[in-house]
Amino acid sequence: MDAFVKLNGVVAPLDRVNIDTDQIIPAVYLKSIERTGFEDALFSSWRYNADGSENPDFVLNKPEYRNANVLVAGPNFGCGSSREHAPWALRDYGIKCIISTSFADIFYNNCFKNGVLPLVLPPEQVREIMDKAESDPGIQLNIDLLAQRVWDESEEISISFEIDSARKDALVNGLDDIGLTLRMENDISDYEAKHGL
After folding, report:
1. Which of 114, 117, 139, 146 could form a disulfide with 87 if both were Cys (CB 3.0 to 4.6 A apart)?
2. Do residues 47 and 61 make contact, with C-beta atoms less than 8 angstroms apart?
3. pLDDT values of the chain reduced to their tens digit, one per residue, 197 residues
4. Distance (Å, whole) CA 62 – CA 141
5. What angle in degrees, to the nearest 10, is found between the helix axes of 85-93 and 105-113?
6. First-to-last CA distance in the chain?
7. In the chain, helix, strand, coil percent, each to 5?
8. Domains recognised in the chain with CATH numbers
9. For the whole model, what pTM was predicted?
10. How far is it, in rounded angstroms, from Cα 94 to Cα 12?
11. Neighbours of 76 (CB within 10 A)
12. Which residues lie below 8 Å from residue 140, measured CB to CB, with a gap of 6+?
């Protein structure tokens, strides 16, 4: 898993609530269990028209937001079915951080396991970022996970955030569940030797 330490990126505003995993990646794309190749499936029912052409009204199809790697969205992001394909699709598209007031639990956990930072901020701070991204298309945010801080170049936005220390450690070091277990390989070997396993 790629480490997440610092990020500077364009913010795309998706001012909708209850964005569920079927909207993030529709079920038709769940046939593969490979962890890559889902970038075109991300928000496909919103990004594309019935004939397969791009929907020019969808935020990620607008030139100012096309290369966004930060998404700011309404509350309860990632609700619905528990598909790990959702963070895979976001990551494959290039979204490395999602900012919202709340996330569905399973989606939230899956993000950390796949190198995507789901950042929970208070409603007024999410609204500040959303409004700035809408009024100033192409605005970039800096996200420093070590310092636990988010800011824009003008410092009009300057936010400190809290995050669980174990989740932070895993992201900063690029460790998924297997990586975290392998970190304790010597202890596991010692235990097995001591108990004749």
Report:
1. 114
2. yes
3. 888 999 999 999 999 999 999 999 988 877 767 777 789 999 999 999 999 999 999 999 999 999 999 999 999 999 998 888 999 999 999 999 999 999 999 999 999 999 999 999 999 999 999 999 999 999 999 999 999 999 999 999 999 999 999 999 999 999 877 666 666 777 777 777 788 77
4. 18
5. 50
6. 30
7. 35, 20, 45
8. 6-194 (3.20.19.10)
9. 0.89
10. 12
11. 17
12. 8, 9, 10, 11, 152, 153
Q: The tokens 């009204």 sit on which residue?
A: 57
Amino acid present at 132: K
Find where tokens 């790697």 sit.
69
Distance CA 120, CA 84 (A): 19
Helix, coil or strand: residue 193:
helix
Cα-flanking dihedrals φ and ψ of residue 97, to 5°? -145, 135
Q: Count Cβ atoms below 10 Å from residue 172 Cβ, excluding itself.
A: 14
Rounded CA-CA distance 145/112 in Å is 13
DSSP 154-184: TSSSEEE----HHHHHHHHTT--HHHHHHTT
Q: Cα separations (Å) of 57 from 46, 54, 72?
A: 9, 9, 17
Which amino acid, one-letter code, is at 47? R
Pair of tokens at residue 159: 């936010």
